[in-house]
Amino acid sequence: MTDTLALIPAGIDTYRQPVIYMHEDCHICRAEGFAAQTRVRIDLRDQWVIATLNVVARGEWLAVDEAALSASAWSAIGAKRGDIARLSHPEPATSSSRLRAKAYGERLTEQDFASIIRDTLDHRLTDIDLAAFITACAGERLDDAETVALTRTMQAAGETLDWGGRTVLDKHCVGGLPGNRTTPLVVAIVAAAGQMIPKTSSRAITSPAGTADTMEVLAPVTLDERALRRVVEAEGGCVIWGGALNLSPADDHFIRIERPLDFDSTGQLVASVLSKKAAAGSTHVLVDMPVGATAKVRSAEDAEALMARFLYVGEAIGLRLALHLSDGSAPVGRGIGPALEAADVLAVLRRTAGAPKDLRERALDLAGKLLDLAPQGLCQAGRARAEALLDSGEAEAKFLSICAAQGGFTEPQLAPHRVEIPALSDGVISAIDNRVIARIAKLAGAPGQKVAGVRLGARPGDRVSRGQPLYEIHAATPGEAEWARGYAERHADVFAIAEEPE
């Protein structure tokens, strides 16, 4: 057949974007008019995938009668080296007109969103198409009804866990606050209290660490549904990465585009969070919303609008929702980055003398409110119960049991390269810029390098002297350490230091 080629693995990880590599002299490229960035349908036995074409100039690694597939494309069709696949032009995405409609300000229906989600999962939409959709929905361009419709269609596109009518507690933070790693603590406390809390978490989108990134330092987080159920039935809770469970799978595609764009929209944020909570089988959900000038939610007015959207959508899809406003003016804990945040979590659980008090107090507040939210809640006594479980060591024991059930506990390690950044003047720290300090941690290698990040040596309200270390950059390589140091030196005002009154 003239429209077939032998397949070989390219050995290239393109994350969730299927890519096909073809030689520039390939007969199919010439006959079909395929060019760089063309969308190509690949059929193999009873599987198919749509991939983006990269054209290979003359070279020895790819023959003219072969096509190489990226890791995601190879996996999608279950290919084996030497398989013969049929290549063709795919049918146009049926949702293209709805994308254009949204870009011009039209409201979309549940049917419209379902079409977009379907084409997203079938890879019929290019990254440019998805970027246009995300941009067209940014800010307040999704109203309440559209957000409900998007949430429902995102959930319906994947699996939904069924826990047999039992109460399932859950917690989510909208983000934007470095080091705010309360989730593992909340899960340990709530599970120790005898409640069910199967926590599925995400990896970092625009931050130096997501909950799954931090938890992965301590225990395996890539569990399938069977393993998830085994852990939860044994321990009452877990902290795992949700990406392996096909819960609201379109969201993972949107996140891949949002990461380089470095922004969220209100409607898509709510749809992302609540579609995954509903898909995880949660019944009662607490949403933590840090508010601060350099947090994701910057003002009381923004918080009020976001809270209203969460409550509206939660009620519409049948979730019992509560919201918690917290201080978002500065990072939480000492560590920013997966291993450093994991060390903070363990310090709180182990009740060590140097454990960060702010992380402990936030975790107790959230665990207490979540215990109060349960149908057999403790009527405002949840926080006292949470504190007793933490102080007695029961939460620590439960956390270690959860880690063991997920595959085994591991102590976090320190980075081999560390650089101290000193204060340039005497005074009192009045503020820390959340966004800049997070950027420094990312330049140091977080979250890709688990040991990378920033460890804070001072906090708002502390008096410091010129030359005193404000924070320490942790990196896995000297190059990343120097890269982060250079940025830090150009942004010395990340710590605002006010002169002490005479």
From TrEMBL:
Coiled coil regions in record: none
GO molecular function: 1,4-alpha-oligoglucan phosphorylase activity; thymidine phosphorylase activity
PROSITE patterns xrefs: THYMID_PHOSPHORYLASE
Gene3D superfamilies for this protein: 1.20.970.50, Nucleoside phosphorylase/phosphoribosyltransferase catalytic domain, Pyrimidine nucleoside phosphorylase-like, C-terminal domain
Annotated Pyrimidine nucleoside phosphorylase C-terminal domain residues: 428-495
EC primary class: transferase
Keyword terms of this UniProt record: Glycosyltransferase, Transferase
InterPro entries linked: Glycosyl_Trfase_fam3 (IPR000312), Glycosyl_Trfase_fam3_N_dom (IPR017459), Glycosyl_Trfase_fam3_N_dom_sf (IPR036320), Nuc_phospho_transferase (IPR035902), PYNP-like_C_sf (IPR036566), PYNP_C (IPR013102), Pyrmidine_PPase_CS (IPR017872), Thym_Pase_Put (IPR028579)
Keyword hit for Aminoacyl-tRNA synthetase: no
EC number: 2.4.2.4
Cellular-component GO terms for this entry: cytosol
SMART domains, alphabetized: PYNP_C
Entry keyword Glycosyltransferase: yes
Domain of life (superkingdom): Bacteria
Reaction catalysis annotation: thymidine + phosphate = 2-deoxy-alpha-D-ribose 1-phosphate + thymine
Single biological process term from Gene Ontology: pyrimidine nucleoside metabolic process
Record-stated family: Belongs to the thymidine/pyrimidine-nucleoside phosphorylase family. Type 2 subfamily.
Classification via PANTHER family: THYMIDINE PHOSPHORYLASE
Protein name: Putative thymidine phosphorylase
Organism lineage string: Bacteria, Pseudomonadati, Pseudomonadota, Alphaproteobacteria, Rhodobacterales
